[in-house]
Specification:
Length: 141
């Protein structure tokens, strides 16, 4: 799984860099618009709740707010009409002790949610590349 994740991240970084300056809502549309993104995030959070490796990070979290903010963030990153109104990633994750393994487990949960919602691999890769840019702000080695 690590090799697949690394390959996806490398390919995604290439795809992202090629399209980083686009203001198109193509990815937003490929993710199913606001409704599709909200469903992916909901499924992601269920996957996290089922994952013994990372669910402890979410025990004392306002899950409704988290769903709202993750949906906003993904919507905005994907070129949708949303505006992310949450905290920056450093503020949100300071003191959580998120490891690289935790980050990778969350990526796996997101990939599963996107698969379950029939998001194309190319759209998954584009989104993952955007989210990968936040790795250094989230992981507290």
């Amino acid at each position: 799984m690590k090799k697949i994740y690394l390959m996806v991240m490398v390919i995604s970084a290439f795809v992202f860099s090629a399209s980083a300056h686009s203001k198109s809502d193509e990815l937003y549309q490929q993710l199913g618009g606001t409704q599709g993104i909200e469903q992916v995030v909901e499924d992601l959070l269920f996957n996290v709740a089922d994952d013994r490796r990372i669910r402890h990070h979410f025990v004392d979290i306002d899950i409704v707010r988290l769903h709202e903010k993750l949906s906003e963030q993904i919507c905005e990153l994907a070129g949708g009409p949303c505006v992310y109104t949450g905290d920056d990633m450093v503020t949100s994750h300071t003191g959580m002790g998120v490891t690289r393994a935790d980050f990778n487990a969350l990526v796996e949960a997101l990939q599963l949610a996107m698969d379950d919602n029939h998001i194309s691999i190319s759209a998954q890769n584009r989104l993952l590349a955007m989210l990968a840019q936040m790795h250094h702000e989230i992981v507290n080695l």
